[in-house]
Amino acid sequence: MMLFGRTLLLETRGWRSASMRIALGVGVLLMLVLAHSTMGMRSAPGGSLLAILAWSAAIMLSLLGLSYFPSAITEEKEERMLGLLRMAGMAPIGIVLAKSTSRLWDTLLLLGVLMPFAMLAVTLGGVSVEQVLATLATLMCYAFVLANLGLLASVLMPTARAAGQVMLVAMSAVLIVPALIPPLAFLDEASVFTRIGAIAGIGYGGDIVSAWEVGALAIGAGAFVVAWAMFDRFAHDAQEGAAEGGGWVFRRRRGQGLRSPAVGARAIAWKDYHFALGGSLWAWLKPVLMAALVVSITVYAGGTREHVGSAMLALAPWWFALEVGLHLSRIYALEIRAQTLASLLTLPFPITAITATKLVAVARAMIPCGIFFAVGALLAPGTLGDFFGMFAQEPITIAFMAMPLCIMIYFWAWCAFLSVVMKRAAFVTAIGVLIGTYIASSIVIGLLGILMIAVGGMGGVAIMTILICGGLLAVSIVLCMQIPRRLEARAAQ
Amino acid sequence: MDPAANGSMAIEVDRLSHAFRGRAALSQVSFAVAAGSLHGFVGPNGAGKTTTLKVLSTLLAPRAGTARVFGMDVRRDAADVRRRIGYMPDHFSMYRQMSVAEYLDFFAAAYGQSRAQRDKTVGDVLALTDMTGRRGDFIRGLSRGMQQRVSLARVLVHDPDLLLLDEPASGLDPRARIELMDILRELKRMGKTVFISSHILSELGDLCDSCTILDRGQVRFSGEMKDLLRGDRDGLAAYALTLVVADEAVAQAIRAVPGVSAVEADADSAGRYRIAFDRAACDGSAILAAALAAGGKVGDFREDVRHLNDAFMALTQAGVRA
Known about the structure:
The complex is a heterodimer of chains A (about 500) and B (about 325).
Chain A: H1 2-13, H2 15-37, H3 45-67, H4 74-78, H5 82-87, H6 92-124, H7 129-156, H8 160-175, H9 177-180, H10 192-200, H11 211-234, H12 266-275, H13 279-298, H14 305-331, H15 333-337, H16 341-345, H17 351-365, H18 367-379, H19 381-393, H20 396-421, H21 426-447, H22 449-455, H23 457-492
Chain B: E1 9-20, E2 23-34, E3 38-42, H1 49-56, E4 64-69, E5 72-73, H2 78-84, E6 85-88, H3 100-110, H4 115-128, H5 144-156, E7 162-166, H6 174-189, E8 193-197, H7 201-207, E9 210-215, E10 218-224, H8 225-229, E11 237-243, H9 248-255, E12 260-265, E13 272-277, H10 284-293, E14 298-303, H11 308-315
Parallel strand pairs in B: 3-8, 3-9, 6-7, 7-8
Antiparallel strand pairs in B: 1-2, 1-4, 4-5, 9-10, 11-13, 11-14, 12-13
Helix pairs in contact in B: 3-4, 4-5, 9-10
């Protein structure tokens, strides 16, 4: 209980938990203001508010499921503290309970922030008290199942990253695969988003606690018991340097050398390409994975050449945005974890030159994605033609296209920035920031809707787009300018 | 050591000050290191050794004062300084998924060496650190001592003139430590300046030509090692004479030598005498001659040098930095 008490105190009193609760409270308050201001325009403003709150909370919990919960035991493994805890006479049940329950409690406190606001949704109309209570019950059960599955992954896997990857696979199986592969559509019933959609819908007449919640509790409890039972067998301190990452580097045998690096700063690009971004093997494997994804999407849609090409064109930009973000969240994070930053920054190049060569490595790693897009364009030239034709017909759409580009740059800037300030989970946190920004900007757009009406028509939309894009780019520039300073401070530590 | 008196200084630090969150880490630190010397940099934990090394390696900009490496300012001429130094931090700073040869080849390439040059360089530094047989091994599979050798080899790939080594012997077993010291001696013979921070004082005493002792951000001593270890007390030279058989007559004869101020028998060791004298008035040979003339059977006669541990303890303060 001593460890439980200490962990609970640290988790709940820490600045990170407090700031997350404050941020969530402010966000929810803004949503409420928006819902209230648009009451007259909606048939069920309370229902809309509840749905937005529930979706936001479910996304936040999902992100915590990928980063926060899987590090429960693995963080002790990586810091090589688990052996010391065991030597201090702590029983496995004590460690497992302390490390998982404190995180779950911290998360439930976050959900607690939603409670009074969710209840206010009833006063806005279009939603019943039972629906609000059912939503909160669902979210709490979702937190419970994620916390315990994360705990199990962190007991079984040696590092937080590996545990996070296990959680990613497990969550994808429930949240993404059913949408892509129709024969597995039945898994959709297990998705928290399906359940929330059902509860927040008009005329929900189900119970506050349904089979979904009971199932989640049962799976969570089962995962906890298995984690406890497996603790002795799997929970050992990680090997020295295990937390440094480089998991995309495929194991080579002794003497299996790589081609020599180029001379000068370009050598850094060689190092990053082969030892941080996966190298040639990953470059070959990636198109295979992308092709498998396209096949799984198109095979049930007829699988014509045009279908396949369109799917490739649709997939490639998403893949590109996410993979670049992932790489940007790693190129300096790996140096920090491996404590190689000092060696790197004492090379006779300025940080800007080092960063530029690292970006060259990222660009090289993205070549397969570019080829994939080009093949898609060859297979479905009509789709690409329609896309560009839209610009010719409606030039204003070019301005709208700037929005996704700015969002992408904004996301990348956060990935890169967070990777130099956070110990782990920079990529997942950047996704969280992006979603948070989306919600915040939706509220701002809603509140400034009057501007659109005043300016009138597409002009108002264009002004809004320019304002938002400018804001996103300004934040991105500020974040990027912070990175060299942060790196220098890290190297000097 | 007066920097102005010697034109070939590898390091010149002048009134260097730095603070972390309002807490002074370095306060008016000044010292100099001659080119081609092996300079020990010692001090208790928190004395400011690593901070000084970070400044010298261009990683940390000091709040006040200047630091020069071969006459170049570490802030203004950072890129040029980096080409002349090899910095080895106090932690393992390695790409563990690389093989030993890849790791060294990468750094040699980053320093601008052509492929042909690199083959020779990597071979040379591996030979120097006795790691030739391990060139194909992955770094993650090497022992701590071997990883330290690879780190040292990495520091040498661009043939720097000055090596800044932060606790290179930390965590090494006695054999690895002795071998590391041999490599450092070899580097000095090659003309490199070695600036080494270490806690292992016994080895530094034998290894270094000069030394700086830092305590709580301030220099307590900086100069030749022999000056630090010399047992001089109150301006008088101290020698130790060991007679095969204790003989008070010999002691009396030495007391009669002009300039000798004290001859004391060592209570812990029969036949051993501690002699204090004014260097300006006489020298060791006059004392030895007096002892022999008085019929003393001399077993040993030497300057009474201090151990570095004693000098360190005398110059630094006890307790944890407040």
